[in-house]
Design a protein that fits this description.
There is one protein chain. With 246 residues, the protein is mostly helical. Among the domains are: 51 residues, no CATH class; 58 residues, no CATH class; 33 residues, no CATH class. Helices cover 48% and strands 11% of the residues. The protein contains nine helices and six strands, in the order βαββααααβααββαα. The strands form two sheets. It has a three-stranded mixed β-sheet with strand order 1-2-3. Helix 1 links the parallel strand 1 and strand 2. Helix 1 packs antiparallel against helix 2. This is Asparagine synthetase domain-containing protein 1. Keywords: Amino-acid biosynthesis, Asparagine biosynthesis, Glutamine amidotransferase.
Length: 246
């Protein structure tokens, strides 16, 4: 595990980058470690810098403290709700998933009954709204349907256990689980349509979903790519992208 400490010249915090899912016996210690990271970042003075250590190397990159804090908190929350069906032997995993309950089969639209007035301001939602504005500016004559899909923790946990875990391959890490769940709920197409005249319940009739997964790696969409470009130029950025695609 990369070391974490302070730099004497600016008392900055060094944060390890490995948030991969550990084995069961290491999970408790991993959560404790992330809690320490959260505590350090929460109490760090605003003018201090945070550095992210490149995995399996002694190279450090300047990181965004807010982003790092959010990642650590998310890791802790997801590990605590991690389904126990995770198993590297996919043929065994199916037997550990429960049969879908009929209450969800009767009326899938009921999943959108949550209040549309609840504002979800997670980073991807904010980015999505910004993307909508750009699309509207590029093609103002076209109708763009921006559907917000809000999922409660209770609904996520139950559908993850009864339905989604049957469908995700591989299902080895937190990332496999979180991306799989997000794609499943998006594919269901039930949410709230945000339009100029207001917000109304919506269910898509689309038969095809284009997710755009991999676009950030191909088109340098992460903040680490900006840091890489600033510190190593275009050549360094290209090497970073080639490494990720490889």
């Amino acid at each position: 595990m990369p070391s974490r400490g302070t730099r004497p010249e600016d008392s900055s915090v060094l944060i390890p980058t490995d948030n991969s899912t550990p084995h069961k016996e290491d999970l408790s210690s991993k959560i404790k470690e992330q809690k320490i990271v959260v505590d350090e970042l929460s109490n760090l003075k605003k003018n201090r810098k945070v550095y992210r250590q490149q995995q399996n190397s002694n190279i450090f990159f300047l990181a965004d403290r807010t982003e790092m804090l959010s990642e650590s908190k998310t890791f802790i929350a997801e590990e605590k709700t991690m389904p126990t069906t995770f198993n590297r032997e996919g043929n065994k995993q199916k037997n550990k998933c429960e049969i879908p309950s009929e209450e969800f089969s009767k009326d899938v639209a009921a999943a959108a009954a949550d209040s549309p007035n609840k504002h979800v301001s997670v980073p991807d939602r904010i980015t999505g709204r910004a993307g909508l504005k750009e699309l509207q500016a590029v093609s103002p004559s076209r109708i763009w349907n921006f559907v917000e899909i809000n999922v409660s923790m209770e609904e996520l946990q139950k559908l993850r256990r009864t339905r989604i875990c049957h469908l995700i391959r591989p299902l080895d890490t937190v990332l496999d689980d979180s991306i799989g769940c997000a794609v499943w709920f998006a594919s269901r197409g039930i949410g709230w349509l945000v339009a100029q005249e207001g917000v109304k319940s919506y269910q898509s009739n689309a038969k095809v979903v284009l997710t755009g997964i991999g676009a950030d790696e191909q088109l340098a969409g992460y903040s680490r790519h900006r840091v890489r470009f600033q510190s190593h130029g275009l050549e360094g950025l290209n090497k970073e992208i080639m490494m990720e695609l490889g």
